[in-house]
Structures are given as C-alpha cells and as structure tokens.
From TrEMBL:
Name of the featured protein: PA0069 family radical SAM protein
UniProt keyword Iron-sulfur, yes or no: yes
Pfam families tied to this protein: Radical_SAM
Domain of life, source organism: Bacteria
Keyword line: Iron, Iron-sulfur, Metal-binding
Residues annotated as domain Radical SAM core: 82-319
Record InterPro entries: Elp3/MiaA/NifB-like_rSAM, MJ0683-like, rSAM, rSAM_sf
Length: 381
C-alpha cells in the first residue's frame, strides 16, 4: 500500500503516489515518489488477465546507478540564507548515490523532472566541465573571493567521483589560484586528494567536516546505505588531522530516539580521532523528504515512529517541517534548547570548538589573461 503522509502534509505531498512495494537493499528508498511539479500519476490497473498477480510474482532487479553528464553554464552558487556560514558553494554532482534517506537535497531532483526518491540516488548528474567553469569564474574581473563550501547539496566524494574525478579537478583549480574552501563529506574518498588538500591547509586555505551521524553500523546501513561505515569515517578524521588539515565533525541530522542518544558518544569519538570542531542540525523534512522519511521510519522502526514524529513536531512549531530562517537549522522549544545545551557542554568537555575555521581570502590570484597573440599577458617571450 502506498504510504499516506500525515494530515499536516502539504497538498503536493498528500496526492496519490507510486510506491515500490519493498525496500531495496543498498538503497535509502525504493519509492519512485511523485515530485511536486508532476502532473501525471501512475496507478496499477488489473486488465482482467491476471497481470497484477503475474507482476507480483516476477523478480525485479534493483535499479543500477545511471550517470548523466551535464555541461554546466556556471558552477558557483551564492548563498541567500542567513542560517548558513558560507557565502558561496559548489556542487559537482546533482543527486547522491549514498542514498541517505534524510537528505534535505532530495527535492532538488524535482527540478529535473525526476523523483526525489529512488531517482535521486540512482540518476546522478555529473557536471563534467565544473573545473573549466570555475576557472572561467575566477577569470572574471568582477569576481571577488568569498567563503566557499564544496558539497552542500550532494557529497562531492560519492562513489562516482572515483571514476570521474570532478571534485579533484576543482580542488586543483582552487590550489592553483590560492582560493580557500571548506568541505562537508561522509566519504573516506577525500583521503585520495590529501596531496592537494594538506598543502592548502598548511596555508590556511582548506578545512573539512566529516559527517558522522551514528556509531551503530546497523543503523548506518539503512540510514545511509552507500556511505562509508562509521568506523571508517572516524579513521578519515584521524588521517586528515595527522596530515595537518583542520577537521571537524557534523552530527547531522540529529533524529530524536534514533541517533540523538548517541550525540555525546559521537563527539567523544570524533575528538579522540582528531576533530577540532563540531556542529549539529536537527532533522529537517522539506517537501518530498517528509513522506519519504516517514515511510522509511514505518518500515524500519514502527515501534517508535509516532514518538519520533511527535518530538520533531514539538520542535517545529507543531508542523513536520519549519522552513523559516532563524529556526529551521536549530528548531525551537524545550527539546531544541536541550539539544543545544548538550552539544555545547559535550563540545567543551571534549575540546571541540563551535567556531568554524576562518580561512585566508587574501591569497587568491586571478588567472592571467591570455592575449590573442599567445603567451601570457606581461610576458615578452
């Protein structure tokens, strides 16, 4: 049976949706949920020849990952939210194979006329000319360096990066022109690029946050099915710290009664591995993420689903989601205040600062113009 969103869901969420009958191994959601711009709905129909019974008995292979190449017109996005500390961001991919069920970026696949459910984690858009566009942005006379974060709406080191190397190409451009950047990832794949990141960190041009959502491998396998295991992320924190890279931990999202009880233990483990800073954001359920998460919750934790949602609504003004600036990243009410106090006290106890590393913007060097006659501007020969 298709999942029915709660009564306080938006009209777009409350419409009939096509649903995959069973969970798919290695995927966060098997649900091809209709997106909010979709004007066509699918409905199974029995034609009298037993087609529905036949289909139910057939073996369906799980969808494989499809990489769709895109040549982006621009690569740097400006941040319009006062809740976020960085000014600009770069996302080398759209969609993410990690399949985290809670990912707030899932609804962005709607703009591509793709499902925020299974499509988000199986149809990955790769911006193959990202490095080229970044260099062009730097060459613009109007460009001024500002705080830049990589991987805000996708993981820049998701599995396809091993083959395509788009993120590495971006970091090469950043290193070439002395432009600082920060990054959030839950992948150990970042270790591959330490030869670029560590020298930049030594010049105060790079910092990294590892997302460690849980220390429980069983929970991680269904919550973030294709991301690195928790122990592997802690080892990556250690590797980065030993290489001299300022590294912090993000315990986000914090989900009541699931990973929320682990908050202090995660911070302690991250600090022991070498993390220097920490932050945490309570679970957000924008647009299609709401029914996707509630469906996942009912499948995997039916015994506590009602408690989880009741606590979330308590800190979201009685709603499933609160999109307002000023409260969307922290929540409100007694429980939100308690979480903030726990984070503050645990961070102090384990020597984790709440302040982000301030990187040096003064080292940026604009690309040298190439005159029509060849050679670089300013060179005689």
């Amino acid at each position: 049976m298709p999942f029915k969103p709660s009564t306080n869901a938006t009209p777009a969420q409350a419409q009939p949706l096509y649903v995959q009958a069973d969970s798919l191994k290695g995927r966060g959601s098997g649900w091809a949920i209709a997106h909010r711009y979709q004007n066509e709905l699918r409905e199974q129909y029995d034609d009298g020849w037993g087609s529905l019974v036949q289909e139910a008995g057939e073996e369906h292979l799980p969808p494989s990952t499809q990489i769709i190449e895109e040549r982006a017109k621009s690569i740097i996005s400006s941040n319009q939210s006062p809740d976020i500390s960085f000014d600009t961001s770069i996302n080398p991919y759209r969609g993410c194979e990690h399949g985290c069920i809670y990912c707030f970026a899932r609804p962005t696949h709607s703009y591509l006329n793709l499902s925020p459910g299974i499509d988000f984690e199986t149809k990955i858009i790769a911006k193959v000319n990202a490095a080229e566009r970044l260099r062009a942005s730097f060459a613009s006379p109007s460009y001024q360096p500002r705080s830049l974060c990589i991987g805000t709406a996708t993981d820049a080191y998701q599995p396809v990066e091993r083959k395509l190397g788009i993120t590495r190409a971006l970091i090469e451009v950043l290193a070439e022109h002395g432009h600082p950047f920060s990054m959030v990832t839950k992948s150990s794949g970042i270790e591959r690029d330490l030869d670029l990141i560590a020298p930049m960190a030594a010049r105060n041009l790079a910092s990294v946050y590892l997302s460690v959502t849980t220390l429980d491998p069983a929970l991680a396998r269904i919550l973030e099915p294709r991301a690195a295991a928790p122990h592997r992320r802690l080892r990556t924190i250690e590797t980065l710290a030993q290489a001299g890279v300022p590294v912090g931990v993000s315990v986000s999202p914090l989900i009541p009664f699931l990973n929320e009880p682990e908050l202090e233990r995660i911070l302690e483990a991250a600090a022991a591995a070498g993390a220097r800073a920490a932050f945490s954001i309570p679970l957000r359920l924008p647009w299609e993420v709401n029914p996707l998460f509630q469906d996942w919750l009912q499948r995997h934790y039916p015994d506590r689903a009602a408690r989880v949602m009741a606590r979330l609504r308590e800190m979201r003004g009685g709603r499933d989601n609160d999109p307002r600036f000023g409260s969307r990243m922290s929540g409100e009410g007694l429980w939100a205040q308690l979480i903030a106090q726990r984070l503050k006290k645990a961070s102090q106890r384990f020597g984790l600062t709440r302040e982000r590393v301030v990187l040096d913007l003064s080292q940026f060097r604009r690309p040298t113009a190439m005159p029509a006659g060849g050679g670089r501007q300013g060179e005689l020969f």
